[in-house]
Amino acid sequence: MELWLSCAIGFLVFCGIYLLLRARTFPVALGLTLLSYAINLFLFSMGRLHTGMPAVIGSAADYTDPVPQALVLTAIVIGFAMTAFVLVLALRAHVLLGSDHVDGHEKKTEEGA
Amino acid sequence: MNHWIMIPVILPLLLGAVLAWLSDERATLQRRLSLAGSLALLAVSLLLMQTANQEQVQIYSLGNWSAPFGIVLVLDRLSALMVLTTAVLAALVNGYACAGDDKRGRYFHALFQFQIAGICGAFLTGDLFNLFVFFEILLIASYALLLHGGGSQRLRSAVHYVVLNLVGSTLFLLGAGLVYGISGTLNMADIARFVQQAEGDSLYLMHAAGWILILVFGLKAALLPLHFWLPRAYASATAPVAALFAVMTKVGLYAILRFVTLIYAAEADAASAFDLDLLFAIALLTLLLGALGAFAADTLHSMLAWLVLVSVGTLLAGISLASEQSIAASLYYLLHSTWGIAGMFLLADLIARQRGKLAARLRTGPPLLTPARLGALFFVGAIATAGLPPFSGFIGKLSLLQSASGPYAAWLWPALLLAGFVVIVALSRAGSQLFWQQGSPLPEPVEPLQPVRFATALLLTGSAVLLLVAAGPVLDYCLTTAQQLLQPELYLKQLEGG
């Protein structure tokens, strides 16, 4: 289970970083989202991986750590708000600057493209 | 429990909520409330400073959950000093904004108060995850404040600023998660205790987590490889916002100082994996790069933004030396640079207002309406910023230079003095261009200098004189702060319950 989870997190981070390095604001916003998903999974796994155990002490023989779950909830809420903000900002930049390039203007075509 | 510790967070937060709810037609009421809040914060922070100076480290357990389990706010000399720095800056900048800049966009006062709440919270909290939350509060307020006033230039720099800081936030979570996964706690005192006893794999992992977190704090503080966002963002922000942002880089530096003295304190001595020489090298490079950037800047605003980098480099050099004298010198320099640079940002705005379309571009322009007053203030501010005698910048730099010894001194002296020299040249070039080389006057009349704006700029820039007059007591306080920081066991006492 640990191996699969770490592979999944790694793949999400890989996709996130790839998209983050794109020059358009929409892929960048998607990249940020994927990256925050990966980090949320990572945070969640920091309480160690268990199946079928409650996050309450005393109600079963063993329990999972409730703190990372609380942290992930907070991180998800904050991440949502931030993603919404980035999207609004990207839209406004696109409308106002007439370009969805992250620098706000198209690169001068030096490559002769 | 001393409930006053909670006030610097609660007061601006509630006030911000009320201000956001008030409609923008009631501008006078908004301004009065916001100013009253800032002044009340100033009074509370003075009170906290007095409390922190009399007794040992005080804690405030939220919801009365005791130390390692609940979230605590911690009041020691350092956090009191940082809150006071913020409160003074906020009150004056708020006064400046109320002279008209707050109406250039919506919700200025609400965002301003939220930003203050986030900054004060970051200084006071004793919990790593709570620090993350306060960072997010101050960041989201700063995203919107950066856009205040509108315009495509601001929008462009805001996209970079927001994306970079969101990546920083995910890295923060990565570091905090790693710390929790290894040590099983998020209370900073408890983490420090864990690191003291850790060995083998868990110690190495804690080092990795520590460096990830320092990377994040370095991004906020705009240290060398992570500084690209700062000059553009600060130069394009509205004057009061840029002035308020003068304290934002200090939040990152504060976090680095807290980590280095509290959590990795034992490691720093042992010259193990967590050695501070890397930070020292980064500090010097940041310092030199900032000076070069200031030299190359083509507007006064971007020159000031690069000067923020110079101050960040100087401060980090003091922190990474991690001795009593160097930390004390850094704290003194922190006060000076925060207020001084903020005052210079306000002053730059006043100058730009009198130059028509040319604004703060460093070219020969129309004669200013009030050259004597603005020129004199620029002169004082420039001398203080460059670190020439007699003002506070000189005292700060001198005590920092004196605190370095051995090979560190051999690196610090030339770097600091060279950067100082380049800054002097840059500022005198800017000053002579703005005040002496004059072209034809503007066709249309400019708005007269508003006394409120001038007074707040004067007070912030003039803090250099105040810090000079009060240098003795202020340096003493900084020294006792540094002594307290270098005895982490005082901070760890909160774990014993009470």
Structure commentary:
Chain B: Residues 126-415 form the NADH:quinone oxidoreductase/Mrp antiporter transmembrane domain. Chain B: It comes from Thiopseudomonas denitrificans. Chain B: The chain crosses the membrane at residues 6-23, 35-52, 72-95, 107-125, 131-149, 161-183, 203-230, 242-266, 278-297, 304-323, 329-351, 372-391, 411-431. The complex is a heterodimer of chains A (113) and B (498). Chain A is mainly alpha-helical and 113 residues long. Chain A has helices spanning 2-20, 25-45, 66-97. Chain A has one domain (2-97). The mean pLDDT of chain A is 88. Chain B has 498 residues and is an all-alpha fold. Chain B contains 21 helices and 2 strands. The longest helix of chain B has 32 residues, at 152-183. Chain B starts with 6 loop residues before the first helix and ends in a 6-residue tail after the last helix. The mean pLDDT of chain B is 90. Chains A and B meet through helix 2 and helix 3 of A and helix 5 and helix 6 of B.
